[in-house]
Amino acid sequence: MGIKLKNSRILKILLSQVAGQPLRWIRASWRLEGVESDPQAQTILDSGKPVIYALWHGRMYCLFKAVPLEKVAILVSPSNDGEFITRLARTIGFRHFVRGSHKRGGTQAILGLRKALLEDDLSIAFTVDGPRGPRYKVKPGIIRLASQTGAPIIPLGSATEWLLSKFDRAWDHYHAPMPFTKMRLMYGKPLQVPEALSDEQIQAYCTELESELLRVNLAADSQYGFHHQERL
Questions:
Q1: Distance of alpha carbon 156 from alpha carbon 16, whole angstroms
Q2: What's the CA gap between 214 and 232, in Å, rounded?
Q3: pLDDT grade for 1, boundaries at 50, 70 and 90
Q4: How many CB atoms lie within 10 A of CB 90?
Q5: How far, CA to CA in Å, does 15 sit from each of 45, 83, 84, 85, 88?
Q6: Which helix (H) or strand (E) holds 15?
Q7: Which of 53, 79, 96, 103 is the most buried (most CB within 10 A)?
Q8: Residue 4: what pLDDT?
Q9: Do the strands 163-167 and 174-177 form a parallel or antiparallel pair, or are they unpaired?
Q10: Sign of the CA dihedral 116, 118, 123, 125?
Q11: Distance from C-alpha of 127 to C-alpha of 165, rounded to nearest angstrom
Q12: What is the reported pTM?
């Protein structure tokens, strides 16, 4: 009987190792040359308390330099592909994962994220426009999570001097930085979300977070000479 490669656990383990080690090397090669933090954000980060990092799906690379990987949990799909992503992320350096998604196991995902913040003393990395867009539009999940847990949202902005590619055909315009490129990070103005919000208030916070994420990412891009949204 032949092995079904698509569902082969051994194959996925091997592939995650093969893909993960080069990514780990590339991450180590990036040269962080500047970090700019909003004063309020820096005070929160210095306190060591768990936060919710908000970032765009297309600039996920910034997590490799912007957050302590061993103290951050990421949300991963419960699918077979999610298992591969978990192993790949673990090879790169992440240690904590919450399995679930908005469409599959959504309740489990919310409970897992709440537990990570409130019980496990972990921060959360949240791609606000994922997993399928629309690009640069904040979905309400991050606002609801912040409202339920009291954890502040820290917007993350990033840019690199050189990109291997910006995948314009991908929904998220994913940025793939080149090895050894220079990188800048920006921590934007934190968002503290109160409890018991109406739908209109949730949307208002989504809009506010969108605006701050746009600002910090454009500001980071401008450090490398991009002043007209060319990198969006």
A1: 27
A2: 9
A3: very low
A4: 15
A5: 35, 12, 8, 10, 8
A6: helix 9-29
A7: 53
A8: 44
A9: antiparallel
A10: positive
A11: 20
A12: 0.88
